[in-house]
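Now for today's protein.

===
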Amino acid sequence: MPKTSKKPPLIPLSQPAIRGNAWKYVKECLDTEWVSSVGRFVGEFEQATARFTGSPHAVAGVNGTACLHVALKLAGIGPGDGVIVPALTFIATANAVTYCGATPLFLDCDERRFNLDLDQLEDFLESRCKKGGSGLVTPSGVPVKAVLPVHVLGFPVDMDRLGALCEKHRLLLIEDAAESIGSRWNGRHTGTFGRLGVLSFNGNKIITTGGGGMILTADPELAARAKHVTQQAKSDPDEYLHDEIGFNYRLTNVAAALGLSQLEVLPEFLAQRAKIAEWYRRGLPSVRVEETPPAAEWNRWLLAVQTGSADAKAELLRRLNEAGAQARPLWVPVPLQKPYRGAFSANIEKARRAYDTVINIPSSTSVTEKDVERVAAVLRDAALERLLA
């Protein structure tokens, strides 16, 4: 019989690591049959997240996108409002704006970390927009109401500079911190700079509830409103009375039980991610490493390499996946996606180049030093411009 080649074991891109009290907490939900949205773990998960992030309030939801939708609505974003959104992000960021009837205004990314280009943002606000009755409006007359930054790959945006720009131009700041639990800027956790911020606990994040998200805010009234509207805006504990249009965006008790167990071991996960990044640095001694500035604490949700061209990226993706190293490109820039092709977009050449040349490499908490060496062996044969680790 002909010999069949055995595939190497998969080195996952970003899979969950289920450790600590996960089985104990989830079993409690199953044993007590408190598996839906009522039970002790939702509140405990919210309180633990608030403590970890330093946010005065945290409200759990079914996923990050749903939480972002609610955060935007509670901030007063609605039809006719313009919201500045990064061109390079997962499409859910722009979708949440659209759910509110608002208009996403796409700006480019910076070329070092792929976050919102603050130089372009400053130029857009101060040179391209004009003053209207209640603030800035775009050249086409759309009122600019808010900025919605994304901490891309978990790396924190320069929130000091962004906050100052928003304050100067009286713009709301709402953070999509979906990827960045454990990341900080000048010691302050992402998601806590704006009026509201949102975390995600999707299955590919550093910690997970299977799905799940969290709204962060310092405003007790906004927190109470978030809790209310995510529970169908039910206004009576016994009767089915509802005082406004709400949403079925609640997190379940069993999902929160998993989330609480994950949050308890998050410091261990973050330390392991830092080790994995160091292994990649050692495995690629001739590749330039993008240094992390002193103000930034990065959770290293996804590590990345940059190639010199789209062809080089495609070839490296093929080689990595053939070697059993799960690798993925960045997102297609949102203004190039079919639903948003007619939307306002500034020059997004840096976002286009990032998509054409950047690959995310295996970054899971479970990745071993031996796994990294296997990935690095493939990367050493590629023409890499730099490593983001």
